[in-house]
Amino acid sequence: MTEQNKARKSYSKKPSKKERLASDLAKKERIESGGVLIREDGVAVSAVALAARRAALEQAMSEEQLQAEHSDHAHERPTRNKHKQRAQAGLSPVVTKIEAPTATGRRLAQCLWAAQVLLLDVLKFDAAADKQVSKYLREHKELGARDRHIVAETIYAVLRQKRVFSNVAQSGQGALERRLVLLGAKTCVPDEQMNAAIEPAEWEWLQQVSKVDTSAMSPAVRSNLTDEWFAELTAAYGEEGALQLAYALNQTAPLDIRVNTMKSSREAVKIALNHSGIESVDCALAPLGLRLAGKPALQKLDVFTTGSVEVQDEGSQLLTHLLGAKRGEMIADFCAGAGGKTLAIGAMMKNTGRLYAFDVAAHRLAKLKPRLARSGLSNVQTVALDSENDSRVKRLSGKLDRVLIDAPCSGLGTLRRNPDLKWRHGIDSIARLSALQASILNSAARLVKVGGTVVYATCSVLPAENQNVVDAFLKANPNYEKQDVRAALAVQNIDLPESAISDGYLQLLPHKHETDGFFAACLKRVG
Ligand SMILES: C[S@@+](CC[C@H](N)C(=O)[O-])C[C@H]1O[C@@H](n2cnc3c(N)ncnc32)[C@H](O)[C@@H]1O
């Protein structure tokens, strides 16, 4: 092995136990000093906000408990202390089982109970909800496929609509979490099945609250966001725009895939999917995208195992087209994470040239490895950076043709997939994130040669993480010029609607474009 190859290998190796401990310690110190925690999936969460949210939740729960203890039905509730004791011991909370009144309802009653146990853990907001749901379902093999779907959908429905649900759930009796679960389950379980699985009084309550006129609630409550997030969206989009955006962000996301042109074509994949009983339609804007009907499991299909497709939201696919990668170029995907966009860029380069996948998280880059193996790409070099100012970045200064910066951000544009984010972060994280984003943009932009292209992107819908960061960069760096994203995409025969362009920047929004919320700026180095 050459020296160069040895060095390359060590950049991308899995972190040792010692490295992981050191990184955990650094993270802890960063959190304790009020910093931003970058979550497992790349989304940044403020530790301060997390602590505040947990305190607010505990207060809300204890107020609820107090109310219940003073009500006539106090004896029906499990005590808060019991929850606390079990939580301290690392055990799942005790939740009273409510038996189904009919034999047919027994199975669903079990699911509702499971959802209530899980919800109590999820609402602590000390871990990502998707991870908690997966862990719970992994540990409860007794739940069948449909049961798992109901449990997961119920939890997600509560996370999406928690504010309206909590408002509605002020009436009724018993544990608040049980009422939240009933409201969540009602969104994914047919009425007659619900009726068979819950107590008559609960059914009656559900019927009553279904008639509650939510339009009488304040816009912030209807948005199902915290007051501070709703105010932030209102400042950017106006109250009506913020409500429409929030409403769309509170829906479930469709399942999009990108066809890997190294292995197949969109038509061939469509036919193969059809043979497996999966319907798909072409994505409206992304030329290699297919939108699937429902949420079929893909992992075992040939098109997936052979690397012909990757799961990728249509908006995310458009960001990689914006970069306009070509054969033989030198390109960096600066915040590559698990490589969703790296794979798309590598295929656009037809597996030629050199594509650097940079990230500060070695464990995320490690997840790119099996995806690379499936994709058939061999032009990608993963590099785990110490920071955006790593000397290995500096050494490549002025040498690259293009750089994509998929910056760490609040992730507000992905609430359809990660609804817990809106409760887990607070507005205080934004100032720290903007500073990090500016620092990454400054460092990464230096990589391109004169005439080279930089695409700065986020999955945030907030100007503070988007146009404000880029505008400030352009002001301080007159040797970079903004390129209109419409022109950049038109070169690839992608005709963006007017609504997706704001001051030359790309702004994808779920209520307008049926994608996750994404922002992107295309910059050219001119001097
Ligand atoms: C939005 S995620 C990237 C998602 C990825 N591009 C994809 O398509 O799957 C942001 C990434 O930025 C990384 N990151 C955070 N701080 C960074 C820094 N200072 N330099 C480089 N990467 C950083 C995070 O580890 C995270 O993987």
UniProtKB/TrEMBL annotation:
Superkingdom, natural source: Bacteria
Name the record gives this protein: NOL1/NOP2/Sun family protein
Keywords: Methyltransferase, RNA-binding, S-adenosyl-L-methionine, Transferase
Compositionally skewed regions (Basic residues) per UniProt: 7-17
Active site: C459
PANTHER family the UniProt entry points to: NOP2 YEAST -RELATED NOL1/NOP2/FMU SUN DOMAIN-CONTAINING, RIBOSOMAL RNA SMALL SUBUNIT METHYLTRANSFERASE B-RELATED
Region annotation Disordered: where it falls in the sequence: 1-25, 61-91
UniProt record similarity statement: Belongs to the class I-like SAM-binding methyltransferase superfamily. RsmB/NOP family.
Any Pfam family the entry gives: RsmF-B_ferredox
GO molecular function annotations of the record: RNA binding; RNA methyltransferase activity
Domain SAM-dependent MTase RsmB/NOP-type: 245-526
PROSITE patterns: SAM_MT_RSMB_NOP
